[in-house]
């Protein structure tokens, strides 16, 4: 930072987007302007049902958090919605058009991009080349402009400029010529998010964007996600950190055992009995301290509620147990 730079000011809290749903907030509630609509979507693995979503609408122009205990089916649902996996039953659409049998790369071209819980950056390519790979629908791919080298060159330059701009935003610009394999786990997650933005998507789906990201970077990552909304994008993200969810999400969808069990604004969802049940599962008859370790449940007689720490701790405890698939 040069001495001329303005001093860093703490970020101003940005307004939540409200009025997203129609009627009472509940699982499957209709949205005023849904960007994704899913109906009867199921996915079975052998005898087990990983996803069983009766109805889900994702509100446009807002940040929606998808939360739920480990194994709830969040990643599988992401895979289904983005064409990386196909459901056994159901219909689902993006911007009013069905996505059935649309492969992932064509889903991305329509403006729906996602990142992965376990990053997919290509280690033996440089950071810059990974970014360029994120670009689809390039002008140079089109017949006429490909006949005019000047246009092609101009476009190649534009791609590189956008890549550099995004790398600077994610503080990866000094690594642009390094192999992606040399990045830390957190930096690879940032690279993946930056790469997803190369296409200027309409809907960005982030699967645990914070997992493995150095705490020093999390604040700016939060700001980046809020910026996406300011730029007019819709965000759907999976996250265990309830502080983050409360801070940036306009809407929260809760999954458990493949189903949507609750929906609502962050503060309301935390008080929902179905959410408490989802996080404590079948263990409510057992001493909670023994079963869940770090989870401390705060219950009052008529208003049971989970604190952000409870849910975050539950998610982290599970994440630590998780196989690195
Ligand atoms: N490819 C697969 N084959 C078999 N079982 C799977 C597969 N993918 C996910 N599952 C199972 O589906 C359930 C939901 O998994 P997942 O969607 O990864 O949950 P979450 O992301 O909420 O932690 C889990 O029980 C998981 O073991
Ligand atoms: Mg997952």
Walk me through what this model shows.
This protein is of the alpha/beta class. Among the domains are: 34-120 and 195-269, 3-Layer(aba) Sandwich (Rossmann fold); 122-182, no CATH class. It has twelve helices and ten strands. It has helices at 74-81, 104-109, 127-133, 143-146, 149-169, 185-196, 215-230, 242-248, 266-269, 273-280, 288-292, 308-321, and strands at 34-45, 48-59, 63-67, 89-94, 97-98, 112-114, 203-207, 234-238, 251-256, 259-264. It has a six-stranded mixed β-sheet, with helices on both faces. Strands 2-1-4-5 form a four-stranded antiparallel β-sheet, covered by helices on one side. A hairpin with a 2-residue loop joins strand 4 and strand 5. It is globular and about 60 Å long. Residues 45, 50, 68, 70-76 line the site of adenosine-5'-diphosphate (ADP).
In whole angstroms, how far apart are the ends?
Answer: 39 Å
CATH class of the domain at 34-120 and 195-269: Alpha Beta
- Summing up helix and strand content along with how strands pair, one would put the structural category as alpha/beta
Query: What is the radius of gyration?
Result: 21 Å
Total strand segments: 10
Largest sheet: 6 strands, mixed
Shape: globular
For this entry, give a set of tags.
single chain; 325 residues; alpha/beta; Rossmann fold; six-stranded mixed β-sheet; 34% helix; binds adenosine-5'-diphosphate; binds magnesium ion
What is this entry, summarized?
The protein is an alpha/beta fold and 325 residues long. Among the domains are: 34-120 and 195-269, P-loop containing nucleotide triphosphate hydrolases (Rossmann fold, 3-Layer(aba) Sandwich), CATH 3.40.50.300; 122-182, no CATH class.
